[in-house]
Task: inverse folding
């Protein structure tokens, strides 16, 4: 037997699966592994990249949530014409001289908006769903 030492041949490679461009943090991790051969410095640099990735993801989430909030506001602006009741103020002559009787009529418009949003309630009433329970003696529940 000879006193030769066997050399191990090893290949280290990384493959990013999927189509498209690698995200910045994958590129940064590859750069750190290639640039720093000292395992301690490499560990610190990879930890820094992981920390930056976490901050970046949280920032993207906050930006997307702000975008969703703006979209909700735009949708609500579009809905306001349908959901806001149109109040009709009716003035009639009063028995008292110089005064007028006033009545506010908003229920019909609100009922139309309600029917537009949630549909007809006749089906609920026919199946006894979501109906007000009233005692037989008086109006208490």
Result:
């Amino acid at each position: 037997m000879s006193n030769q030492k066997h050399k191990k041949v090893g290949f280290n490679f990384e493959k990013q699966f999927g189509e498209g461009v690698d995200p910045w943090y994958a590129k940064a991790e590859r750069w750190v592994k290639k640039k720093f051969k000292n395992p301690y410095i490499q560990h610190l640099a990879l930890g820094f990249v992981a920390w930056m990735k976490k901050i970046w993801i949280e920032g993207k989430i906050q930006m997307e949530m702000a975008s969703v909030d703006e979209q909700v506001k735009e949708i609500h602006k579009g809905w306001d014409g349908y959901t806001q009741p149109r109040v009709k103020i009716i003035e009639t002559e009063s028995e008292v001289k110089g005064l007028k009787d006033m009545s506010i009529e908003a229920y019909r418009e609100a009922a139309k908006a309600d029917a537009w949003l949630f549909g007809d309630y006749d089906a609920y009433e026919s199946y006894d769903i979501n109906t007000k329970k009233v005692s037989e003696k008086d109006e208490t529940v």
User: Anything to note?
Assistant: Helices lie at 24-35, 39-83, 107-118, 122-126. The chain has two domains: 22-84, 87-127. The beta strands are 88-93, 100-105. Residues 27 and 132 are 63 Å apart (CA to CA).
